[in-house]
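Students often ask why we bother encoding 3D structure as a string. The short answer is that it lets us treat folding as translation between two languages. Here is a chain of 198 residues written in the first language.
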Amino acid sequence: MESDDIAAIHAEAIEVILNHILYVRGVYPGQIFKKRRIYNTPVFIVAFPALNSYLANVLRTVQQLLQNPAQQLKLEVIIYGNDAEHMESYLLEMQPVQSDHAQDQYLMEYEQQLSAALYKLADRVKHLPKLGQNAKFKVHIHTTQTAFTQLSHDAQYQEFPWLQASANPQQLEPRKFALLPLATVDKVGLKMDAHICG
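And here it is in the second language, the structure alphabet:
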């Protein structure tokens, strides 16, 4: 399988996970989601044009970064309230791994792992307190300085530029962290670990 194909497969999985987080945590009303069946699992996908556009641009960048087989990448979904009050973070850590694609030629194990990850996520977050109506989210991509420089000079990303995050004094304050491992997917040449931090 080509690295472009593998990156597209992972970008689709990340899209499903991002949408799933937004749905199960109630960041947006359930009415803006449409039920679909992906990975033989019922999932809810955003059906709101402005939000779809934002997520599509994020995923296009992630897919571009994943096309480099040596790239390690972390994608963090940060849920926050008014005054940028940090409520929760969901961290997807992605690392390239050696994988024998012939063993999972039809991506059956990959789909099963992702389906299990979605069910685990829903199960783990159902005990968390509900978010208020002021909940918002943003996506941070943790990557190398080289990858950031390449993105910032690439003409196709000028309409959706990425900014280097500055250290926020609020982020430097000591906080309690609860790391809950959600799932590990290690098929099709990528190891993806998901954690909740809050």
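Translate back mentally: The chain has one domain: 3-197. Keep this in mind for the problem set.
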